[in-house]
Amino acid sequence: MPKFKKPIMGSCSACGLGGRKVRYLEFHQRISVILVGFDQQVAGNICGECSRRYFWKFSGVTLLAGWWSLSGLLMTPAYLLVNTINYFQSLVLRRGNAVAVPKE
Predict the structure, then answer these.
(1) What is the mean pLDDT of each run of 10 residues along the chain (104 residues)?
(2) Domain ranges (residues) in the chain
(3) SS3 per-residue string spanning the chain
(4) What pTM, to 2 d.p., does this model score?
């Protein structure tokens, strides 16, 4: 899958809807339990609505459950920073997804 740094019109790899502004984004989630941590990631050409959904879901879980291991103490701030940067980069995607209908 090609990684688009600038927003383009295409299909969202998360929801599958076409004709939307998409951009390559990654969101990370960390869940730590005493000695071990579990990571989850979503990456691809993602639309603005999906980026909002994944940002709040993954960052919320990471904020609450990411700190509880030694590796989590290092990974949690990094994941939250990356998620926040990608979220702000996705704000431009939420404008202009509507298809213009010509008037007759």
Answers:
(1) 69 90 94 92 93 96 95 95 92 61 44
(2) 8-93
(3) CCCCCCCEEECCCCCCCCCEEEEEEEEEEEEEECCEEEEEEEEEEEEHHHHHHHHHHHHHHHHHHCCCCHHHHHHHHHHHHHHHHHHHHHHHHHCCCCCCCCCC
(4) 0.81
